[in-house]
Amino acid sequence: MGDKTNAHPGAAGRAVTADHPASVRNVVLVGHSGSGKTTLVEALALTAGAVNRAGRVEDGGTVSDYDEIEHRQQRSVQLSLVPVAWDGYKINILDTPGYADFVGELRAGLRAADAALFVVSAADGVDGSTRMVWEECAAVGMPRAIVVTHLEAARADFEEMTRVCAETFGGDDPDAVLPLYLPLHGDPAPDGHAPVTGLIGLLSQRLFDYASGERKESEPGPEQLPLLAEARNRLIEGIIAESEDETLMDRYLGGEDIDVKTLVDDLERAVARGAFHPVLAAAPAADGAKQGLGTVELLELVTGGFPTPLERPTPAVFTPQGASRPAVDCDPEGPLVAEVLKTASDPYVGRVSLVRVFSGTLRPDETVHVSGHGLTDRVHANGDPHVPQDVHEHDERVGALTAPFGKQQRSLTQCVAGDLACVAKLNRAETGDTLSAKDAPLLMEPWDMPDPLLPLAIEAHSKADEDKLSQGLSRLVAEDPTMRLEQNQDTHQVVLWCLGEAHADVALERLRNRYGVQVDVVPHKVSLRETFAGRSPGRGRHVKQSGGHGQFAICEIEVEPLPGGSGIEFVDKVVGGAVPRQFIPSVEKGIRAQAAKGVAAGYPLIDVRVTLLDGKAHSVDSSDAAFQTAGALALRDAAGDATIHLLEPVVEVRVLIGDEDVGSVMSDLSGRRGRVVGTEQTPGGRTLVRAEVPEIEIGRYAVDLRSLSHGTARFSRAYARHEPMPAHLSERIREQAQDTP
Coil, strand or helix: which one is 139? Predict the structure, then answer.
């Protein structure tokens, strides 16, 4: 199975290291919030000897939930790495948040891992978001297994949950999702629920009793074997169906008793290929226990069935200029290619980057080339979701290399291909950046990140906060590529675009506690526009005499509407020199300055033609400034007698929703003044709904759609155009503008 790790199962407090990719297993835990992922990590760490006592989420004592926000909210909000050693192998356990607002952390965990453990609660079942992640993993062929937790719940039923998992995850092949063990129940409690105290292996037909707090193996009783027969036969048939040995099925159907070792070997190969998905059971260790139920079986599956980094394809690589390069191999002696999966700030160390090395070996104090896609440089353009900036490049010196264990950092001398480590003081590297040799720079293809679509407008609380706000925000978005920063030039607002309310709350708390910046949340403004509904004349007269050099400028204009997207067109039709040539640009400048300020409710004026028809000048008192003022006054005068339309931005919304929720979504869009422009069937029982909706109506759509679809829908938005706002809404906004001092 390859080189062994330097650590052993009882190495609590020591760094777990690996000398070769074959001795590494990278596994990510996936599941909805509250399914028991963090508790399972504690149980696995205890069984592997990485901790001496399992912590509890309720007490804030777990290894992977170490942030103060996680302690307070009692849920994971960030990706955490807990490496353990088992049977001579290093297992990098990646604990991910289950709440949808932190899906960016989940994406990073999926990028880092070579296999996934889907954690399913026997009390809550499988939610829609977990099904979607399963489908994503299936699309890329990632090996998966299922762990059923919360077996202690009163209504928990392992057999029923395995059936649900087979229906949900098995698709057209439910026999590819089968249990490897059946639970052994103890004496019933007063409420009638019999606790699970052990497991019976279907292949080995051995009993593993955890009642004493430590796994004890024995022979099952004769009365138990008949209960295993049906499940065992189905498991064997499922394994043989996925076997690469085409003769095995014929031998089995011919009555041959297949050797257990052959079945186990075929099982492990099928799991590593992503063709078979075993279901296991697990429970946390009781106080004083050394092992949690099912944890030994899980660790054996991870080391024996999940693939090594050598068996998984590496992401495509390019030059920073975009030229293709041959795929890199997971070779410690190959060229260095590593990726920053997560960026965090430590108050003592500074910036800490969690990286996965895909090729080569990363060592402290070496200089590497950092290339990035500009993920965290993306800002929202006015009216457009986000605009990626150019790739950034620079050389940086690698600081200390450490193995993270929750909030602890344990020193490392190197990190080989396939392994993960933390790098200190990569001060300019950001999440998603590639580290490579400075003389042969490379850039890895980016992974998919969801677009943040919930706007959070903020203002500095005080002058002292204003001085620190820019730096705090830049650090915040550098750590979290699912957050976008917008400096809106129309509304003059600073806007953080987040994935949801919980995401926004964490961002504000980190600004306050980590970067010392106090901000106030203010209503988010939409970039409205103004335009004329019809032709309107205007006269601007600016005449002042105050004893010295006076001011004299008169101009007459006509304003007419233009088609959308025309901007402001200025036309000179002055005859006879009524307005001297040198002052005509001054009139235009004044008109454009006033248009930028608005003429009705303070929003920019667009899509009009302004024609200068006539005017008057004075040989002494006329000036550039006077005609600028006259031009502005003329435009305001034209607006005084005209009908001014307020234009609101309309966005094209594309919603991917389950077929069963299409009616609810379309009804909700109609209630937002939306117009459905088309629907399209997509694979997997989903429908793509395309609609045009006023932007002012979808400020909280990211939150509302999640509630409407139970977390299974996705949507995107793109600016379409500005169009007139309904009269009653327009009038309300005008009144608000007049009331604003």
Answer: helix
